[in-house]
Amino acid sequence: MAMEVATPAPAPITAPERNIILAPATVETHKKNRIQVSNTKKPLFFYVNLAKRYMQQHNEVELSALGMAITTVVTISEILKNNGLATEKKVLTSTVGMKDETKGRMVQKAKASLFFIIIIEIVLGKSDKFDSLVPPVTNGKTPEEVAKAETEAAVEVQEAAATEA
Questions:
Q1: Structural domain for 54, as ranges
Q2: What is the edge-to-edge ordering of all strands in the sheet holding 86-100?
Protein backbone atom coordinates (compact mmCIF):
# COMPACT_ATOMS: atom_id res chain seq x y z
CA MET A 1 0.00 0.00 0.00
CA ALA A 2 1.48 3.35 -1.10
CA MET A 3 1.59 6.20 1.37
CA GLU A 4 1.06 9.80 0.28
CA VAL A 5 2.82 12.60 2.09
CA ALA A 6 0.95 15.91 2.12
CA THR A 7 2.90 19.12 2.32
CA PRO A 8 1.17 22.03 4.04
CA ALA A 9 0.16 24.92 1.80
CA PRO A 10 1.70 28.29 2.59
CA ALA A 11 -0.55 30.80 4.33
CA PRO A 12 -2.57 32.95 1.93
CA ILE A 13 -1.64 36.57 1.38
CA THR A 14 -4.45 38.94 2.26
CA ALA A 15 -5.14 42.23 0.49
CA PRO A 16 -6.75 44.18 3.36
CA GLU A 17 -8.33 46.97 1.31
CA ARG A 18 -10.66 44.51 -0.40
CA ASN A 19 -10.57 41.50 1.91
CA ILE A 20 -9.49 39.31 -0.97
CA ILE A 21 -7.11 36.41 -0.39
CA LEU A 22 -4.44 36.02 -3.04
CA ALA A 23 -3.04 32.56 -3.61
CA PRO A 24 0.69 32.61 -2.87
CA ALA A 25 2.88 32.93 -5.95
CA THR A 26 6.54 32.22 -6.34
CA VAL A 27 8.58 34.78 -4.46
CA GLU A 28 10.51 36.88 -6.93
CA THR A 29 12.49 40.04 -6.45
CA HIS A 30 11.65 43.03 -8.63
CA LYS A 31 13.54 42.83 -11.89
CA LYS A 32 15.17 45.99 -13.18
CA ASN A 33 13.98 45.30 -16.72
CA ARG A 34 10.33 44.50 -15.85
CA ILE A 35 7.46 46.83 -16.73
CA GLN A 36 4.15 46.12 -15.01
CA VAL A 37 1.59 47.49 -17.42
CA SER A 38 -1.77 48.99 -16.49
CA ASN A 39 -4.38 49.97 -19.03
CA THR A 40 -5.63 52.84 -16.86
CA LYS A 41 -2.56 54.60 -15.42
CA LYS A 42 -0.43 55.65 -18.39
CA PRO A 43 -0.92 56.11 -22.15
CA LEU A 44 0.05 53.24 -24.46
CA PHE A 45 3.05 55.02 -25.94
CA PHE A 46 4.47 55.77 -22.50
CA TYR A 47 4.97 52.01 -22.15
CA VAL A 48 6.29 51.67 -25.73
CA ASN A 49 8.91 54.37 -25.10
CA LEU A 50 9.76 52.98 -21.68
CA ALA A 51 10.25 49.50 -23.16
CA LYS A 52 12.65 50.96 -25.75
CA ARG A 53 14.70 52.58 -22.99
CA TYR A 54 14.77 49.38 -20.94
CA MET A 55 15.99 47.45 -23.99
CA GLN A 56 18.73 50.05 -24.45
CA GLN A 57 19.90 49.57 -20.88
CA HIS A 58 19.35 45.83 -20.37
CA ASN A 59 19.17 44.39 -23.93
CA GLU A 60 15.75 42.95 -23.11
CA VAL A 61 12.52 43.94 -21.38
CA GLU A 62 9.85 41.94 -19.59
CA LEU A 63 6.31 43.24 -19.98
CA SER A 64 3.76 41.88 -17.53
CA ALA A 65 0.07 42.51 -16.92
CA LEU A 66 -3.02 41.17 -15.18
CA GLY A 67 -6.53 40.71 -16.55
CA MET A 68 -7.80 43.52 -18.77
CA ALA A 69 -4.30 44.99 -19.24
CA ILE A 70 -3.16 41.89 -21.15
CA THR A 71 -4.33 43.38 -24.46
CA THR A 72 -2.22 46.46 -23.74
CA VAL A 73 0.91 44.33 -23.22
CA VAL A 74 0.27 42.43 -26.46
CA THR A 75 -0.24 45.72 -28.33
CA ILE A 76 3.03 47.15 -26.94
CA SER A 77 4.86 43.99 -27.94
CA GLU A 78 3.42 44.05 -31.47
CA ILE A 79 4.29 47.74 -31.96
CA LEU A 80 7.90 47.09 -30.97
CA LYS A 81 8.16 43.98 -33.15
CA ASN A 82 6.44 45.52 -36.19
CA ASN A 83 8.76 48.55 -36.04
CA GLY A 84 11.77 46.25 -36.16
CA LEU A 85 12.91 47.13 -32.63
CA ALA A 86 12.33 43.85 -30.79
CA THR A 87 12.22 40.11 -31.11
CA GLU A 88 10.01 37.93 -28.97
CA LYS A 89 12.00 35.71 -26.61
CA LYS A 90 9.36 34.25 -24.31
CA VAL A 91 5.63 34.39 -23.60
CA LEU A 92 4.23 33.05 -20.32
CA THR A 93 0.66 32.92 -19.13
CA SER A 94 -0.58 31.83 -15.73
CA THR A 95 -3.52 32.22 -13.40
CA VAL A 96 -3.82 33.25 -9.78
CA GLY A 97 -6.80 32.02 -7.79
CA MET A 98 -8.60 34.51 -5.58
CA LYS A 99 -11.32 34.09 -2.98
CA ASP A 100 -13.52 36.84 -1.60
CA GLU A 101 -13.13 36.41 2.14
CA THR A 102 -16.14 38.57 3.09
CA LYS A 103 -18.66 36.74 0.95
CA GLY A 104 -17.04 33.31 0.88
CA ARG A 105 -18.06 33.04 -2.73
CA MET A 106 -16.85 33.98 -6.14
CA VAL A 107 -17.28 37.58 -7.19
CA GLN A 108 -18.26 36.64 -10.76
CA LYS A 109 -20.30 33.47 -10.18
CA ALA A 110 -22.61 33.04 -7.22
CA LYS A 111 -21.99 29.35 -6.38
CA ALA A 112 -18.20 29.17 -6.60
CA SER A 113 -15.79 30.27 -3.88
CA LEU A 114 -12.79 31.00 -6.09
CA PHE A 115 -12.08 33.01 -9.25
CA PHE A 116 -8.95 33.42 -11.32
CA ILE A 117 -6.95 36.32 -12.67
CA ILE A 118 -4.92 35.70 -15.81
CA ILE A 119 -1.33 36.95 -15.92
CA ILE A 120 0.86 37.39 -19.00
CA GLU A 121 4.59 37.99 -19.24
CA ILE A 122 6.27 38.75 -22.56
CA VAL A 123 10.05 38.98 -22.79
CA LEU A 124 11.38 40.98 -25.73
CA GLY A 125 14.98 41.31 -26.79
CA LYS A 126 16.70 43.91 -28.95
CA SER A 127 16.47 43.26 -32.66
CA ASP A 128 19.60 43.38 -34.82
CA LYS A 129 18.48 46.81 -36.12
CA PHE A 130 17.61 48.27 -32.68
CA ASP A 131 20.79 50.30 -32.13
CA SER A 132 20.61 51.89 -35.58
CA LEU A 133 16.90 52.78 -35.12
CA VAL A 134 16.93 54.14 -31.54
CA PRO A 135 19.37 56.92 -30.63
CA PRO A 136 21.30 56.45 -27.38
CA VAL A 137 20.22 58.32 -24.26
CA THR A 138 22.98 60.65 -23.09
CA ASN A 139 21.13 63.20 -20.97
CA GLY A 140 21.32 61.27 -17.69
CA LYS A 141 17.55 60.88 -17.28
CA THR A 142 15.95 57.66 -16.06
CA PRO A 143 14.04 55.56 -18.63
CA GLU A 144 10.77 56.60 -16.96
CA GLU A 145 11.62 60.31 -17.31
CA VAL A 146 12.62 59.90 -20.96
CA ALA A 147 9.47 57.90 -21.77
CA LYS A 148 7.29 60.51 -20.07
CA ALA A 149 8.98 63.37 -21.95
CA GLU A 150 8.64 61.55 -25.30
CA THR A 151 4.97 60.81 -24.61
CA GLU A 152 4.29 64.45 -23.68
CA ALA A 153 6.05 65.62 -26.85
CA ALA A 154 3.96 63.25 -28.98
CA VAL A 155 0.75 64.50 -27.33
CA GLU A 156 1.78 68.12 -27.99
CA VAL A 157 2.38 67.34 -31.66
CA GLN A 158 -1.04 65.65 -31.92
CA GLU A 159 -2.76 68.58 -30.19
CA ALA A 160 -1.00 71.10 -32.46
CA ALA A 161 -2.04 69.12 -35.55
CA ALA A 162 -5.64 68.99 -34.29
CA THR A 163 -5.82 72.77 -33.73
CA GLU A 164 -4.39 73.46 -37.22
CA ALA A 165 -7.00 71.26 -38.89
A1: 34-133
A2: 13-15, 20-22, 86-100, 115-126, 60-66, 34-36
